Amino acid sequence: MTETHPAHCWLTDMDGVLVHEEHALPGAADFIAELTSTGARFQVLTNNSIYTPRDLQARLSASGIELPEESIWTSALATADFLSTQKPNGSAYVIGEAGLTTALHDVGYVLTDRNPDYVVLGETRTYSFEAITRAIRLVEAGARLIATNPDPTGPSSEGSLPATGSVAALITRASGVEPYFVGKPNALMMRSALNRIDAHSESTIMIGDRMDTDIRSGMEAGLRTVLVLSGSTKESEVDRYPYRSTWIKPSIAEVVPLVRELAGQPHLLP
Questions:
Q1: CATH of 2-47+184-269, one of 1.10.443.10, 3.40.1350.10, 3.40.50.1000, 3.40.50.620
Q2: Distance between CA atoms of 76 and 99, rounded to whole angstroms?
């Protein structure tokens, strides 16, 4: 038995934890309701940069999960937040969709293909060879290369699709310049989410379905972590990793009692 500090704040991944192919996973709505009823501050995180928080709120609502738009933190928002601190009111050539372009506009960035400060690569449904070629030439000319997330593939009903990480590798191979990835597993995304809800690492828990992104980034940000086995990482794969999750649960439904336990004073847990 070890003493465990209470948890007043929660970060959770979206796909594989709360939803799967736009259908709510069992217990997801109960989990959000429990956080709300206990007064916990929380953020739902996603590496997907395609959608705005408003879009994602509507998609979650359609699946039966209700939460405010302000409780969603995407890699696009984290990227815009990062760039606004590095070079306020800068300029960028963007390959991406509304989630990314809106986030950059909102922090005062100008989107241009003429001598931009940055090339910013995000997720899109259709990568244009012309746009990728333009990005390579701008990077060769001195633009700094930023990517929202390193995920090499994304899911579709017909199988895997090339995603940001794969296209970033193409640009790197052609230009010789490595990108800076803002999204998970970069702990920067965790820290920006913590700042958003004025949370401290010692009283915050990160939930995810991937050991290599969610759990790693949570651990590196100093958070306790919960791996749920409803998504990418299977129980048989856990021991392959050199780091551990604080808890392992079959699904988000089994995390609901943990929210209740950790909402109070420090106590003993197995």
A1: 3.40.50.1000
A2: 6
- Closest by CA to 75, choosing from 2, 162, 166, 180, is 180
Q: Which residue has the tokens 């960035």?
A: 109
The CATH homologous superfamily of the domain defined by 76-181:
HAD superfamily/HAD-like (3.40.50.1000)
Catalytic-residue membership of 15: yes
H-type alpha helices, 73-116 = 75-86, 98-106
13 catalytic residue (yes or no): yes
pLDDT averages per 10-residue partition of the chain, 270 residues: 73 95 93 94 96 97 96 98 98 97 98 98 93 98 97 76 93 98 95 96 95 95 96 93 97 95 59
Q: Note the pTM of the prediction, 2 decimals.
A: 0.92
Sign of CA dihedral 195, 196, 200, 206: negative
User: Domain-by-domain residue ranges, the chain?
Assistant: 2-47+184-269, 76-181
Residue 47's closest CA among 196, 222, 182, 215?
A: 182
CB-hemisphere CA count at 13 Å for 178?
A: 4
From 13, 81, 209, 214, active-site residue:
13
